[in-house]
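Mods, move this if it's the wrong board.
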Amino acid sequence: MVGGGSRAQSVYHRETFLAVCVKCHKEIHETMAWPLSRQMFQKRKLDNAYYNRRLVNEIKGWDAEAIKESEVDQWQPTP
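Not the wrong board. Structure tokens:
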């Protein structure tokens, strides 16, 4: 979930990794369908023990609250 200049630091933190299929990986990199808040939602859902929104924000060089929990929550499907 962290690339560019922050990638070197991110490799030491499982919190920054999101396992996805090839199709979704392509969408993440080629479309706007997977903003970071959606990636974080998937991380929380599939690997909650290593979900840390604040850490991901900080490793990206942002304020810890740059992406808020409410932004992650918006990806929760409605019943």
